[in-house]
Amino acid sequence: MKTLSLISLLTALAFNTQAAQNDEQHRVGIQVSGGGASYKSSSQDGDGVGQVYAYYNYQLDSTWALEAGISTGSEADDWTCKELTNSKFVCDRNDELLFDLNANKVDYSNFVAAGKGQYQLTENNYIYGKLGAQFYNYEIARGNNKLVDEDGVGLFAEAGWQYDWDNGVAVNVAWQYIDMGDLDVNTLGAGISYRF
């Protein structure tokens, strides 16, 4: 039993020492994504969203990290553009109703706390997953008239691929899921981060 405990302790120290020697315990990043939202399982044309997610990671060892982040998102409207002349265009916003409601706006924000695990495929390629909780607030409105205003705690999940250069810069592609009670958001995005 003492041998197993000693091996576990040495393994943990080796991971922490490697991170400390490379001075890579910290990572900051930003990710931009777009996707779809559903409210009470309703999904239709016009329910698209755009989102920005900024985060900080503290690397525990070469595999595990803790993450804190903030995201904000809103509806993404389609635009139709027509060419009037060779150099002149007219664009109209397709302001479709959202979620089978008489609404045309959705805004949300999330404060995230999650764990991140990564698996190294090659020297610079990783796949990763994040799982945690988020405190959310969202509003669904028609013009200035709020139809729904909710907050609470929900699930946060992300899975992706990351390419990490030796200079500390990394890029990633990820699928993200945010459960905000009656409002669920699925997005696909790309991001950039820096470790130090």
UniProtKB/TrEMBL annotation:
<feature type="signal peptide">
    <location>
        <begin position="1"/>
        <end position="19"/>
    </location>
</feature>
<dbReference type="InterPro" id="IPR027385">
    <property type="entry name" value="Beta-barrel_OMP"/>
</dbReference>
<protein>
    <recommendedName>
        <fullName>Outer membrane protein beta-barrel domain-containing protein</fullName>
    </recommendedName>
</protein>
<feature type="domain" description="Outer membrane protein beta-barrel">
    <location>
        <begin position="8"/>
        <end position="196"/>
    </location>
</feature>
<keyword id="KW-0732">Signal</keyword>
<dbReference type="Pfam" id="PF13505">
    <property type="entry name" value="OMP_b-brl"/>
</dbReference>
<dbReference type="InterPro" id="IPR011250">
    <property type="entry name" value="OMP/PagP_B-barrel"/>
</dbReference>
